[in-house]
Amino acid sequence: MIGAGVISAIIAIIGFSATARTTLENTNRTIEAESKQSSVEFLRQQRVDVYAAFANQATQMYRSVSDITGLFKPGRTPPTADEFDRADRDFSDKSLQFAQQLFRVNIIGDEQTRKCADATSKFLLQFNGTLFEAGKFFNGTPFDAVSKTVPLTEQHDRRFADLVNGFSDAASKGVGVERPSEAPAGTCD
Known about the structure:
Helix 1 (2-70) runs antiparallel to helix 2 (81-108) and helix 2 (81-108) runs antiparallel to helix 3. By secondary structure, the chain is mainly alpha-helical. The relative contact order is 0.12. It has helices spanning 2-70, 81-108, 111-125, 127-135, 143-149, 154-174. The protein has one domain (46-189): Alpha-catenin/vinculin-like (Four Helix Bundle (Hemerythrin (Met), subunit A), Up-down Bundle), CATH 1.20.120.230. The protein has 6 helices and no strands. This is Methyl-accepting chemotaxis protein.
């Protein structure tokens, strides 16, 4: 009897151990799967956040360019040095923030999204020369001469919108989200 009880206890312990091992293995697999899913979702959310911040910062930088160039619209009273200085400092701040977001996109983005971010960056960087020209007003260039070349045009606005929409298209595809059909299409070329 004692031998049968010991054997039953050993069988029960072995059965319990096997059940515990199976439960532990299943728990580990579940944790691994959830961990992988969590890291995939975490990376996806990081991309969403980075892409949104980039598009927002690109828009802020373009507005800053518009503010500076708007100081030189034909028919406007010429800006004071203080007005120009404030707008120029704002542009410098926005440029730095934009560069930081561009860097983040280049680290985390897929190839198409990086391509679109680069095209947007090149477009925005071209205005450094425009702003240099605007600054010449304070070195003696007549306001009329500056106002003919500096202000943004509708063509600039359309190109910027096209680039931002192209970036949004690429970013949406990069995170597996379809943009609404009514969203304007864009291109990064």
